[in-house]
Amino acid sequence: MIRIAISLSLVFALAACGGGFPFGRKAANGPAEPAGIGLTRPMTRPSGLGNAPPPGARTAEEFDTTTAAEREAAKAPSAGGAALGSTVAGLGDPTRAGFWLETPLVTTEGPGRVVYAKSGASAQVLLIPIDGAATAGSRLSLAAMRVLGVPLTELVELQVFAGQ
Questions:
Q1: Is the pLDDT of residue 90 over 80?
Q2: Beta partners for residue 100, in sequence order
Q3: Selection from 60, 57, 48, 70 nearest residue 142 by Cα
């Protein structure tokens, strides 16, 4: 009898750890929670963020599909915009084309500018909000890192500005 009780206790404990029914799993007759709660929906990204890299891309040049004209436009100096603060950024998803910064410093997507603290180089980017404290790190696109001339394998300090 004690063995059965211990075995059942272990089964229920493991089911609770794994999210098994009735601990958050969908029942056969419907969802365990109201529709829309706890669901993550994909965010629509604006068009014009460049082309996807070719399937066999291996180098930074192959992953960076921006044109010379797009790189020059991103380098265009701009002194405008509201200062949002500084962040430490690393390389974001290299398969996502364009000039962007995923950062917790913004709550809505919009145009902005980043300045590399060491050299003063700047780039126009799309600021994309991510969850986290304002002191959390950010992710910078491959194209933006190349325009700023920062090492792709390092974390870099950036000043972030909203608007253009």
A1: yes
A2: 126
A3: 60
CA 107 to CA 113: how far, in whole Å? 15
Q: Write out the two tokens for 88.
A: 């430490």
How is domain 63-162 classified at the architecture level of CATH?
Answer: Beta Barrel (2.40)
CB 149 within 8 A of CB 114: no
* Spatial separation of the C-alpha atoms in residues 122 and 42, rounded to whole Å: 30
Asked whether the predicted pLDDT for residue 68 surpasses 50, the reply is: yes
Average pLDDT rounded to a whole number, residues 117-143:
91
Whether residue 142 contacts residue 98, with contact meaning beta carbons closer than 8 Å, is answered with no
* 8 A C-beta contact, residue 26 and residue 35: no
The ranges assigned to domains in the chain are 1-38, 63-162
The secondary structure of 32-62 as a DSSP string is SS-TTSSPPPPPPPPS-S-PPPPTT--SHHH
Report the relative pairing of strands 122-129 and 100-103 from DSSP bridges. parallel
